[in-house]
Design a protein that fits this description.
Blueprint lengths: L6 E3 L3 H11 L3 H23 L10 E6 L3 H16 L4 E6 L8 H10 L4 E4 L6 H12 L4 E7 L13 H10 L3 E7 L18 E5 L15 E5 L16 E4 L22 E5 L6 H13 L4 E7 L3 H7 L4 E5 L13 H4 L7 E4 L7 H13 L4 E3 L6 H4 L2 H4 L7 E3 L3 H8 L8 H11 L2 E4 L4 E4 L4 E4 L11 H14 L5 H23 L13 H5 L4
Parallel strand pairs: 2-3, 2-5, 3-4, 5-6, 6-7, 7-8, 9-18, 10-11, 10-13, 11-12, 13-14, 14-15, 15-16
Antiparallel strand pairs: 1-9, 16-17, 17-18
Helix pairs in contact: 2-3, 3-4, 5-6, 7-15, 15-16
Amino acid sequence: MKKTSSGYPILSCREVAELEASILKDEAAEWAAMQKAGVGIAKALCRDYQELAPSPKRFNVLALIGKGNNGGDALIACNQILDDFPGSRIKLLFACDPEKLKPSALRAYQLLKGNVTHSQIKAAMQESAIHEILEREAGDFGFDLCIDGLLGMSFKPPLRKPMDTLIKAVNSFDRIKLRAAVDLPSGKGDMSDELFFRADFSYATGIPKKPLFDERVDCGRIRVIDLGFQKTSECSAFETKDSVLAEYVLQPLQTLRPANANKYTYGHVFIVGGSATMPGALLMAVQAALRSGAGLVTAFAPSSVAAALAAQAPEAMWVPWPEKDNGSLDAAASDLLLERVDRATAILIGPGMGKDESVAELARQVIERVEIPVVLDADALCHEVIQSIPGKRKSESAPVILTPHTGEFVRMAKLKTKEVSNETLRAFCQKYVVTTVLKGPLTRICDGGSIRYSIHGGPVLSRGGSGDLLAGLIVGMIAQKHLDASVAVSCATALHGLAAERLAQEEGQICVHTTQLLDYLPEVLRLEP
């Protein structure tokens, strides 16, 4: 594995087991890691809960406990919740005799004794009997949290009793607000069962495992609880092309700027987009570019709406562009862009331009004649444009970055399936010599070799305009020149996702609008690295 400061390697469960065996060589090391994992899970879980509602004064928690380390992590998490929210109610459901827990898990249980209630689920128990326990303990308002600590990464199918009955009962119990899995949902592993714990969030401890990123399964949203394993020499022995962006990818942006900096120091962004009927996409991309830290932004907008857009983003320079009868930009006026392009350090084309042949023609001209980094988004993402890149773009030119969602990628690549595998994504990027930011619940950044996952963002981004903001941030970061294009793309994607999460934690996932995300960018950057 080529070591990188930007994230966590993704390994198989077998590889992680080997790694942990080489790092956690005695019970003291195992206990220290368990404490760090459990506390980290509790803190992250309570933070994620805020997307539902402000944290209550006390939580009602259901914890499913197996005999291994995942059970111990869950028990430590429960203890931390009690410390942070005194008066919380903790109900433990054991899938084994509590006295037969493994040593570290038993030690974690000893910390909780007297502060929790527990039941042992026996092999002969029916699903209905478990439901009776759940109904009784849920109270009038249900469980705020359910923590799954039943099985770990060494699981091999099939699920056996009482695990299968317990997971079925909890999966079908609808009075749980947030379901969290420790490391992996129980039933998942290098070999997975058809039945598994249905998680809203999976909190990967130490190193994220491959089953979390299998396109065929749903493990909920992913969090990585950093135990420092990825920084060890033992970890460097494992080879992988895939990684998860860590929050510390933003460190290049968390430094003081030079005292002698001016507006030319941090680049000049050109953005070409919009149409008479869709001016908003261009405006949002411009607003994001302005917030990216770039020194200058010039926007090329349909002449009928340029003045109105300029009034909403006066920090940008606005160039009116002649329109066709349908309100789209006229490619015949491309000299408006090309005669100025030597001033730019990166260019974005596509937001809100509409599906018109002029879009493809204009994008092709940019690909062929412009040597600075080019970001293609939205309506510029068409097969005719992409296939022209290898033959028309000069080999010494800067990178081309594509920002499709899955549907756009399928159309652009002319795929026969709606699923985009990592192999398909790599092959596409290699063939067309591009970097692709494939947006989705798990956004994938691919340069033809490695794949970097951005796990941040969430359902709050499932609304129009989110992609326009991301495209504006990406081109703005690339334009600043002091960042390598690959680092800039990672920074922009991580910043976008983390800001979306802060928005959801403050305002919820539903009653917000897209551009509110921009107001949380400074907060994310100013957090302690």
